[in-house]
Amino acid sequence: MAGLEKTPVSQEFMKYRSPLVSRYASPEMSFNFSDMNKFTKWRQLWTFLAKSEKNLGLDITDEQIAEMENNQSNIDFELAAAEEKKVRHDVMAHVHTFGQCCPKSAPIIHLGATSAYVGDNTDLIVMRDGFNILLPKLACVIKCLADFAQKQKDLPCLSYTHLQPAQLSTVGKRACLWMQDLLMDLRNLEQARDNIRFRGVKGTTGTQASFLALFEGDEEKVEKLDKMVTEMAGFKQTYMVCGQTYSRKVDIDSLNVLASLGASVHKICTDIRLLASFKELEEPFEKDQIGSSAMPYKRNPMRSERCCALARHLICLVQDPLMTASVQWMERTLDDSANRRISLPEAFLTADIILSTLQNITEGLVVYPKVIERRINQELPFMATENVIMAMVKAGGNRQDCHEQIRVLSQEAGRVVKQEGGDNDLVDRIKKSDYFKPIHDELSSLLDPKTFIGRAPSQQKMKSN
């Protein structure tokens, strides 16, 4: 229209942005894999190295160390990008960029190190920190499910095998099945985090030859250097042997437990989606939330669907480190680099997103007992036929005669349900049958759903050995 000016479009909307960051991931996990965090860690590692080399007798001054410490986050990203475009090497570009703001320290930055010193060690730090972000979130989900299970421990519901009604269980017991899987994931994530070691100060192909030369053949000083830097970085152990890089099987181990977590979340959220279809249970649904643009009445389980979608992505990502580790010829090939820049961050970001979303779901699960009761009533009469037979035998009946009587009535009730779309009327048929008159007064107790749930409530209280 005349007189209306176009609103300028921000440049960030003119290029692809990963939805993992722009749409879903938490600020803390996004920062963990940010350039600022990465390159600040590089500068910290260069400072740790210089401090340790100084302490072991190399000609490095306190002034140089202080200069490096004062410029940890003073990063000129435009200069670094220009340097990398010129030298085609990201580590050397940042060595030069760090040297620009630390002119006195420039001669000793990266002294004796290889690119993997900052690259690999930073990746290990970031993965360790990534697990530390995920673990409390996973614990929160488990706590939410524990509270939900306790609240619903006595509510009978249909349980399923082959997605066909089987026996009865409880809503709380089903939540315990979900929780048990997540407790396994909690254990696995803790183990993966605790198993991460530091690459340390290993030199170009892992032999520490450059540092041995710096310390004039003194192996004890080289070992002390490795230990000092490792402790400064917050690790207790290093990988004893390395090529140019730490073994890429470490990446497999880390992403494998995240993929396993993805499988757990996918199963849980699929169950929730199925139960939502049965109208037995729903994820939270806000007052103004829209379920469908075309069907206003719908309450789609969109959070659970999101979790399933992202969990599939997470499960697939473990294929990257598996293939990368398999082709690391000799001491290292560089075809790991570009792949790891994508697969490692995406795995942790995706795990972060699904845990945050699952926490939101489990905090507000809504149960519909009346719907559950109605669904039980459709199936329970069939499940209770064995109880009816036993009661009749106790009342003096013949087991085979009783079996035939209940079989005929069950088939008739089944036709009403399947062919006429009616309710299950087996109980009414039993009540009208003179044959079953001796147990008519017992039918209510014989059909009490709580007598069909076995030890489900008490199993929730059992502690693992």
Features:
two-stranded antiparallel ribbon; 4 strands; 465 residues; 62% helix; 20 helices; mainly alpha
Structure summarized in a few sentences:
62% of the residues lie in helices and 4% in strands.
Give a description of the structure:
The chain is mainly alpha-helical. It contains 20 helices and four strands. Helix 3 crosses helix 7 and helix 11 packs parallel to helix 14. The longest helix is centred in the N-terminal third of the chain and has 37 residues, at 115-151. The N and C termini lie far apart (74 Å).
C-alpha Rg (nearest Å): 32 Å
Helix content: 55-70%
**How many distinct beta strands?**
4
Name the overall outline.
elongated
Q: Tell me, rounded to a whole number, the average pLDDT.
A: 89
Order of helices and strands: HHHHHHHEEHHHHEHHHEHHHHHH
User: What's the main sheet like?
Assistant: 2 strands, antiparallel
H/I helix tally: 20
Helix and strand content put the structural class at mainly alpha
Topology:
Layout: H1 19-24, H2 27-32, H3 35-55, H4 62-69, H5 77-87, H6 90-101, H7 115-151, E1 156-161, E2 164-170, H8 171-195, H9 209-214, H10 219-232, H11 249-278, E3 281-282, H12 302-317, H13 319-326, H14 337-363, E4 366-367, H15 369-383, H16 385-394, H17 399-419, H18 426-432, H19 443-446, H20 456-459
Antiparallel strand pairs: 1-2, 3-4
